[in-house]
Amino acid sequence: MPELMSNQLLIVSQRPDATIVAGYRTWQSLGRQVRRGAKGIGIFGYSTKTTAQEVTDDAGKTDEKTTTRTFFPVRTVFDISDTDGDDIGLPTEVDSARNPHPDASDKAYQRVSTWLTDQGWDVQRVDITGAIRGYTNHTEKLVRVADHLDDINAARVLLHEAVHVILHGPDSGFITTEQYAASRTHRGTAEIQADGAAADLLGLDTEQASVGYVAGWATAAAGTSTDADAIAAAVRGTAAAILHAVNTIAAALGLDD
Question: Which helix (H) or strand (E) holds 64?
Answer without folding.
Answer: strand 62-71
